[in-house]
Amino acid sequence: MKVQVINILQRNPTWLTVLLCFILLIWQFFATALSVNVQIIIFISLILLTGIPHGALDHLIQEAIYKKLNKTYHLRNFLLKYLLIMAIYALVWYLFSGLSLLIFLVISAWHFGETDLEKVPKGVLIWSFTKLIYGFYILSFILLTHVDEVKPIVFKMVGTQSNLIESWSFIEMNVKPILYLLGLSFTTIFIIAQSQYLINFEKERMFRLLIILVSSAYLPLLPAFALYFGGWHALCAFDNIYGYLREDAPNLSFKYIYLKSLPFTILAIVSLCVFLWYCNVFAASFDPFSILFIFISLITLPHLVITHQMK
Questions:
Q1: Res 284: pLDDT
Q2: Residues 126-161 pLDDT 10s
Q3: If DSSP codes are grouped into helix, strand and coil, which group holds residue 246?
Q4: 114-122, Cβ contacts within 8 angstroms, sequence gap of 24 or more
Q5: What is each CA distance from 90 to 48, 134, 159, 237, 291, in whole angstroms?
Q6: How confident is the model at residue 132, as a pLDDT?
Q7: Sign of torsion, CA 140 144 150 156?
Q8: Is the Cα torsion angle 221, 223, 227, 229 positive or negative in sign?
Q9: Which residues form the signal peptide (predicted)?
Q10: Distance CA 258, CA 163 (A)
């Protein structure tokens, strides 16, 4: 029995996330609410253990892509291009915070859809649109079921602009209709896409995702976001990356690629700490979580470019 459980967790580590969901819900039920310290510990743990590391494999993905194309790979050129994309996006954040937030939401939605619906045919317009709508629904569900917690973070990220205040007031008053509309849109476009290009999805996988999403609606924002981003998305991305890298190296172990992610994970963490310190010293209104989400957006954009090439 013990061996069977271990095999299940090795094949589908997101079952651990499902277990963590139940633990947090039970804990919250008996303790009335999760303390801020517990929320922060869960959030930081999942971001550091899986969230950042899955993006720290981009250099291996790029190397494998170049190998398939018979092109010469240089780590220095990879890093320069990666940092250049981050720097340009950081400048856009500084100059146009509202636009940058919109870009972040769009690329996050696309990235979530591309990772979760990895089996769909590539380059087919109807399925590309399905992935985008799916990603928007997932992102909207997590954010809008915690609309009161999201509001101060968003305002710290982009400021209290009049158009943003009006838009946010509309969103606050129409959370359920927005989620229903997105859900209906995804269901409709999914059925149309399936009628043209039938794809068999793993029911057990969908069941795990459903548990994580439903659980997140009853948990505070930080653990809710971390459970999906670190406990689902990052683990699914690890699986996709592992499968891609093994195409040219069948004996490659998962332990090996995780260890390969550590140098760039550490570099990202150090960069984040420096970024937080700088904002704490020089920013007029410092909020660590808004800064953290901006940092995630900066590393998401080049990561999206690399993983899209992999797809």
A1: 59
A2: 888 999 999 999 999 999 999 999 888 888 877 767
A3: coil
A4: 114/307, 114/308, 114/311, 115/233, 115/236, 115/237, 115/240, 115/307, 116/209, 116/233, 116/236, 118/236, 118/240, 118/311, 119/199, 119/200, 119/201, 120/193, 120/197, 120/199, 121/197, 121/199, 122/311
A5: 22, 27, 16, 25, 12
A6: 92
A7: positive
A8: positive
A9: none
A10: 44
CA dist., res. 7 & res. 254, Å (int)? 14
The pLDDT tens digits for 199-233 are 887 888 889 999 999 999 999 999 999 999 999 99
What pLDDT was estimated at residue 4?
A: 43
Burial class (CB in 10 A: 0-12, 13-18, 19+), 261: buried
Which amino acid, residue 163?
A: N
Query: How many C-beta atoms lie closer than 10 Å to residue 220's C-beta?
Result: 20
Residue type, 269: I
SS3 content of the chain, % helix, strand, coil (to 5): 85, 0, 15
Amino acid at 146: H
Helices H, strands E: what count in the chain? 16, 0
Sequence-ordered list of residues with C-beta below 8 angstroms from that of 21, at least 6 positions apart, any chain: 211, 212, 215, 216, 219, 227
pLDDT at residue number 179:
93
Q: How far is 216 from 212, CA to CA, in rounded Å?
A: 6
- Report which residue type is found at 177: P
Residue 20's pLDDT band (boundaries 50, 70, 90)? Answer: very high
